[in-house]
Amino acid sequence: MVSAAERAELWVGAAVLAVAAGFLIWSTSGGRTSGLGGGYELRAAFPNVSGIEVGTDVRVAGVRVGRVAGIELDPQTYLAEARLRLPESIRLPSDSAALIQSDGLLGGAYIELQPGGAPDDLPPGAEIEDVQGAVSLISLMMKFVDAQTADDEP
Q: Which InterPro entries does the record cross-reference, listed alphabetically (predicted)?
């Protein structure tokens, strides 16, 4: 006969396995939310995509509107081409810009889209021409140190 304590352990174990299975399913789906499954893709070729990976947020005015669907190196230009998945309700003007931004000193990176003012929109699959790649904090500090030492020289 099974005791009450053994039965409780069995239920707790089953609950732990169910939660673990839920996390496994969520993690393999990339943590996508239901609102970002459809939509269309735009492309942007960056000189540097440090901190950006598949699933990274795509934001407009700080609001998450999409995700990075893929990143590949273009063997002809040696630029990193990012595919951005946006919902159908977000249509960007053809002169919009894509910038890689940081969430602070230790935070992650995301792609910020800055809508332009052109009357026509970017069609699905189009490339955003105006891009700015990731800025390395270390290289900025090195430039600052170099500028300071140059100022100190007679």
A: ABC_MlaD, Mce/MlaD, MlaD_Phospholipid_Transporter
Confidence tier at 147 by pLDDT (50, 70, 90)? confident
The whole-model pTM stands at: 0.66
Contact (CB, 8 A) for 46 and 80: yes
Question: What is the distance between the alpha carbons of residues 9 and 116, in angstroms, rounded to a whole number?
Answer: 60
Distance CA 36, CA 14 (A): 32
CA dist list (Å): 153 to 29, 145, 147, 149, 150: 56, 13, 10, 7, 5
The string of DSSP letters for 109-135 reads EEEEEE----SSBPPTT-EE-EEE-PP
Strand segments, DSSP code E, in 5-126 are 40-46, 57-60, 63-73, 80-86, 97-102, 109-114
Instruction: Please state, in angstroms and rounded to a whole number, the distance separating the CA atoms of residues 42 and 32.
Output: 18
Distance CA 129, CA 96 (A): 8
127 vs 124: CA distance, rounded Å: 9
- pLDDT tens for each residue of 8-26: 888 888 888 888 888 777 6
Segments making up each domain of the chain, as ranges = 1-31, 35-141
